[in-house]
């Protein structure tokens, strides 16, 4: 669609700026995915553990000890996975980037053809296409950056982000893990089991709804889906504990 640019008044410009920056701003990159990963994993895993232990032993102390042990082991493990995964992605980007620089020297004509094919597939042709190809290939750094983004679908990764990802995933896993444990501090095991399922489901619903609001999707649908999937997964722990219930001491 071709937009006809017409002169606008000062008030119209102000209204458009407000809409662009406040009403419907672009979402900046954030740690949303890391937060959701850690919190959801902590909520579901610890809920499964505490339900299983509670069903098997009916002892609040044992439930809390098992839950706390799982909380900290899980958070350290999740943080380490986030750290190593981010470093692996950074290493992949660097490896492919170095390979592209070598290809510019060893197979420049093929690399030029790849740039031409990329922009031809976007609808550019003729003199405009050749000008685009000439402009991009005139600078090696720009050339490689375009190939990384367009051919390999890779974005540069700051290695410092590995530490941030590890801390965020680990912290959110701790926070999420403590939610299912909270009821067992104050109420009986039988009551705490139902409260734990309820508060965890509500937290999962909130995370799913928030994710849909800041990305795409319907908040209610996303919230219900996350709550349902997480709760069903955790109830598997209850089933195991119930089937392997420890007999009461005579």
Write up this protein.
- With 250 residues, the chain is mostly helical.
- The protein has one domain.
- It contains 9 helices and no strands.
- The protein is elongated and about 75 Å long.
- The model has no long low-confidence stretch (mean pLDDT 86).
What proportion of the residues form beta strands (DSSP E)?
under 5%
- Rounded to the nearest angstrom, the radius of gyration is 26 Å
The structure class reads mainly alpha
Supply the number of helical segments: 9
The general outline is elongated
Low-confidence stretches: none
Q: How many domains make up the coordinates?
A: 1
Q: Percent range for helical residues?
A: over 70%
The string of secondary-structure elements, in order, is HHHHHHHHH
- Total beta-strand segments: 0
Tell me about the biggest sheet? none
Note the gap between the termini: 80 Å
The average pLDDT is: 86
What would you say about this model in short?
This protein is an all-alpha fold.
Q: What layout of secondary structure does this protein have?
A:
Layout lengths: L9 H14 L8 H26 L2 H47 L1 H14 L4 H12 L2 H12 L8 H27 L2 H26 L4 H25 L7
Helix pairs in contact: 2-3, 2-7, 2-8, 2-9, 3-6, 3-7, 4-5, 7-8, 8-9
């Amino acid at each position: 669609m071709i937009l006809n640019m017409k002169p606008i008044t000062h008030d119209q410009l102000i209204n458009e700026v407000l809409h662009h920056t406040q009403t419907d701003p672009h979402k900046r990159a954030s740690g949303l995915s890391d937060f959701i990963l850690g919190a959801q994993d902590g909520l579901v895993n610890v809920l499964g553990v505490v339900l299983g232990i509670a069903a098997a032993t009916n002892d609040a102390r044992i439930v809390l000890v098992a839950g706390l042990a799982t909380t900290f082991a899980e958070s350290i493990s999740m943080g380490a996975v986030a750290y190593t995964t981010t470093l692996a992605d950074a290493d992949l980007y660097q490896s492919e980037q170095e390979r592209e620089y070598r290809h510019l020297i060893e197979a420049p004509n093929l690399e030029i053809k790849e740039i031409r094919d990329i922009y031809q597939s976007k609808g550019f042709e003729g003199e405009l296409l050749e000008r685009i190809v000439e402009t991009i290939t005139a600078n090696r750094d720009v050339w490689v950056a375009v190939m990384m983004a367009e051919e390999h679908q890779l974005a540069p990764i700051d290695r410092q982000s590995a530490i941030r990802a590890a801390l965020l995933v680990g912290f959110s896993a701790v926070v999420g893990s403590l939610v299912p444990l909270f009821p067992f501090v104050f109420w009986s095991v039988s009551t705490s089991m139902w409260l734990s399922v309820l508060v965890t489901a509500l937290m999962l619903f909130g995370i799913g709804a928030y994710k849909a609001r800041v990305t795409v999707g319907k908040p209610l649908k996303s919230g219900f889906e996350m709550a349902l999937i997480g709760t069903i997964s955790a109830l598997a722990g209850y089933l195991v504990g119930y089937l392997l219930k420890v007999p009461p001491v005579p």
